[in-house]
Amino acid sequence: MPSTPLNRPADPPLEAGGRAARKGDTGWRARLRKTPGGALALKAGVLVVGSLFILLGLAAAVLPGPLTIPPMLLGLYVLASEFDWADRLLQRAKRSAEEAWRAAKKRPVFSGVTTVGGLILAGVAIWAVGHYNLVAQAKDAVGL
Known about the structure:
It is a single chain. By secondary structure, this protein is mainly alpha-helical. It is built from six helices and no strands. It has helices spanning about 30-35, 40-60, 70-80, 85-105, 110-130, 135-140. The longest helix is centred in the middle third of the chain and has 25 residues, at about 40-60.
């Protein structure tokens, strides 16, 4: 690839729809992008599916229940398949996860105690909400 005057690689050639071509991109997505409106339809579909997973993760953060981060990461992964900004966010999330993993391996006892303590606190909070009927009390306080 030719270099720019600043000694960095030039941007890769763009396919129809403005997405950078990836090496080995010869599957059904490449064929769909070559059709009129196919690139736009693919981007719209990926945007809808990825956004639904991210919204599911956000809803899981507000509603009772675990697993808020996996659906959000899955949504980001889906979005990264078509959007460069999402790919940059996904790479940043991967770097952060690797840094956290390295830090946890340096102090395994502290990491384990912190994790177990957090799980115990979450269990106590869930028990307290059910035992003291806190959801109904909050609704009454707000007037719902």
